[in-house]
Amino acid sequence: MSRVGKKLKIGITYDLRDDYLKEGFGFEETAEFDLPDTIEAIEKVIIDNGFQADRIGNIKGLARRLVAGNRWDLVFNIAEGLHGFGREAQVPALLEAYNIPYTFSDPLGHALSLHKGMTKHVLRDLGIPTPDFAVVNNQTDIDKINLPFPLFAKPVAEGTGKGITSFSKITTRKNLQKIYKKLLKTFKQPVLIETYLPGREFTVGILGTGKDARALGVLEVILKPAAEKNAYSYENKEHYDRLVEYILVKDDEAQKAMEISLMAWRALDLKDAGRIDLRSDAKGVPHFMEVNSLAGLNPVRSDLPILCSKIGMSYHKLITSIIKSALKRTKK
Ligand SMILES: Nc1ncnc2c1ncn2[C@@H]1O[C@H](COP(=O)(O)OP(=O)(O)OP(=O)(O)O)[C@@H](O)[C@H]1O
Ligand SMILES: [Mg+2]
Predict the structure, then answer these.
(1) What is the tens place of the pLDDT at every residue in 2-54?
(2) pLDDT of residue 1
């Protein structure tokens, strides 16, 4: 893919977990951040494709380099950011200000999908199945909730199972009160309360943008007997190798999950690659839970690469396809 006479220069923006741990941030606070082997793996694919790779680091590093006059033909952006609902949108917004192309979604797509309540408003408006819900900020909001139990509670804008345990499934008003208070205090953001989905759980991998987007396949997430109950929780994600089984599935329910995911992906105008999480209701109808517009890309641990390896797509092919998809948006 190198252009004639010029080796494309691809920058990489990311938030390295170690950098933040060194600055004194906690283990769970930094759970979504990247491990060094993720950056190494992406860099290797860039170089193997004949491009030039340049590690930029986080948004502060990017800002310094931009001011110093550095430019790139494309930035492979996996920076999650630290502050606010726009945290994943910050690097794309900065790059747009300098007219530098980048991988994955634009600021609108990232901000919208990080906020699970806003995402659900948009998708419900389009008729995509998603559990009934309320976004609560205070006691008045909680008192107004009139949804049937069991319910499920989670921070409105986190990932990697943060704030999710077996107690996230709630069967009484007393526990609703207790859990919502705890989540509000710990994560300092609104809490999403929604109908509990008791059925099978799926994660669907998506590659491409708009009409070119396709669903790569469906992994059923099965909690093993030793796993924490009720949810694919933080604990279950941390010890996935012992507690979770991932099975590639193609039955009718899985096909339906794929269809819903592709509709949601296109409706939210997300780009290049990502993952959509669904669970079925008691009747076996898959419902949208959340979308990851910046899906984890650790070659071994992350769900999207795990799914790709199960369908016979190498990590090299996945990353190269993401780069190709992003380059389609550039005029070069
Ligand atoms: N409404 C629900 N009903 C039943 N289980 C749910 C519901 N919402 C979430 N869960 C469970 O909690 C898990 C984590 O929820 P969700 O995917 O929203 O969180 P996340 O932390 O953003 O995940 P990721 O690691 O994919 O970023 C789900 O995989 C599922 O097992
Ligand atoms: Mg999820």
Answers:
(1) 455 579 999 999 999 888 888 888 887 787 788 999 999 999 999 999 999 99
(2) 53
CA of 46 to the centre of ligand 1 (A): 32
Ordered strands of the 169-170 beta sheet? 133-136, 191-195, 151-155, 169-170
What is the distance in A from the centroid of ligand 1 to the CA of 62? 32
CA of 130 from ligand 1 middle (Å) equals 12
H or E, element range at 75 = strand 74-77
pTM listed for this prediction? 0.94
- Residue 260: phi and psi, rounded to 5, are -60, -40
Q: What's phi and psi for 40, nearest 5 deg? A: -60, -45
Cα 290 to ligand 1 centroid, rounded to whole Å:
7
Mutate which of 187, 193, 277, 306 for ligand 1 pocket (most atoms within 8 A of beta carbon): 277
As a dihedral over the C-alpha atoms of residue 39, residue 103, residue 232, residue 178, rounded to 10 degrees, the angle is 100
| pLDDT tens digits for range 127-147 | 999 999 999 999 999 999 999
Question: Which ligand is closest to the CA of 158, given by its number?
Answer: 1
Judge whether 193 and 180 are in contact, CB under 8 Å: yes
Residues in CB range of 52: below 8 A, 6 or more apart: 7, 8, 9, 10, 46
Q: Are 104 and 293 in contact, with CB atoms under 8 Å apart?
A: yes
Per-residue model confidence as pLDDT tens digits over 159-168: 889 999 999 9
- 187 vs 101: CA distance, rounded Å: 33
211: confidence class by pLDDT, cuts 50, 70, 90: very high
Q: Please name which of 242, 159, 229 lies closest in space to residue 201, comparing C-alpha atoms.
A: 229
What is the C-alpha end-to-end distance of the chain, expressed in Å? 12
302 lines ligand 1 (CB under 6 A): no
